[in-house]
Amino acid sequence: MKRVMMTAAFCLIAGSAGATDLNVSATDLSGNSSITVQPGATVNYKVTGALSDTLNEGLALFGLDLDFEGGALAQADTPTQNPMLNFTRNAGITNPDGYGGTIINGDLVQVGGGQNTIKNFAENADFPIGTVITNVAHTAQVLVTGSLTAPNKPGTYRLLIKNVFANVIKDGETGNPFWATEAAGVGNVSHLTILVEGGGGCDGNEKFKSAACKCPGKRKLIAKGEATAGQTVQVSGDNGLGSGSDVANTRNKWKVVFKSTVTCGTTYALTATFDCGLTEGKSVTCDP
Fold it and tell me: Which run of H or of E encompasses 101?
């Protein structure tokens, strides 16, 4: 429904698909398609687009979805400079939530926008009211920028580009009485691969599985988990609980026990820090 809302203003002037494709790629800001980061790191990304030929007058409209395998995405950035500023409201037209896309179940849906190829003016409607810029994406053009947070769990995750669509301005157009467009195809689509290495030594076996209290009587708080045998795990807690450590045994199990510092009726925020650099947290209330 939202896609229809963004493209409805353009459907009367979009012709059948031509030979031109829009190629898109997701990378970090330096142009790397595969990167290695630490758990919880902020990753700044960009999506670059380039038309497959110049048998047109450039990009008129585009949209795409973004899906991060490592978690939910925040809305992408709204451009502040031309030519992509011309694709944002009010110069251009976007879906109701804006150029940065609509967040649905952690994904970004329909990031992008379109230029004022219909030559609307403010007396008719508030947007689009910009002046068309031609030749957009005849060479590589950054279409989208944004940032995401890498997961705490080591592994390989991808920022995926999905559901790409685009229109281009037809070759020979002058904007009189409007800029006629035609649908472009979808060419090469490449994704950003993010390896979360977790301090260089994490192997994915690090887990903080449980925390439980025994109150009253012999007060005791027990934190348990898993890690590769020989790895040291330190557990610390607030509200005066202190810290303790253990080394994972040959069954890849570890356990840290607190006794004298436990106060019944208190809620503790616990953090397990593995010597590979990964941290995980849990909360437990020692009910009297």
Answer: none
Tell me what the pLDDT averaged over the chain comes to: 90
- Look at residue 135 and give its three-state secondary structure: coil
Q: Which amino acid is at 286?
A: C
What top-level class would CATH report for the domain 2-196? mainly beta
236 pairs with which residues across the strands?
243, 271
What does the DSSP assignment read for 115-126?
--TT---TTT-S
Pairing mode, strands 56-68 and 155-170: antiparallel
pTM greater than 0.90? no
User: DSSP class of residue 83?
Assistant: T
Class of the CATH-defined domain 207-285: mainly beta
Q: What is 267-279 written as a DSSP string?
A: EEEEEEEETTS-E
Q: Looking at residue 125, what is its pLDDT?
A: 86
Q: What are the residue ranges of CATH 2.60.40.680 in the chain?
A: 2-196
Q: How far is CA 238 from CA 211, 235, 266, 284, in A?
A: 14, 11, 10, 11
pLDDT confidence of residue 201: 60
> Which element (helix H / strand E) includes 3?
helix 2-7
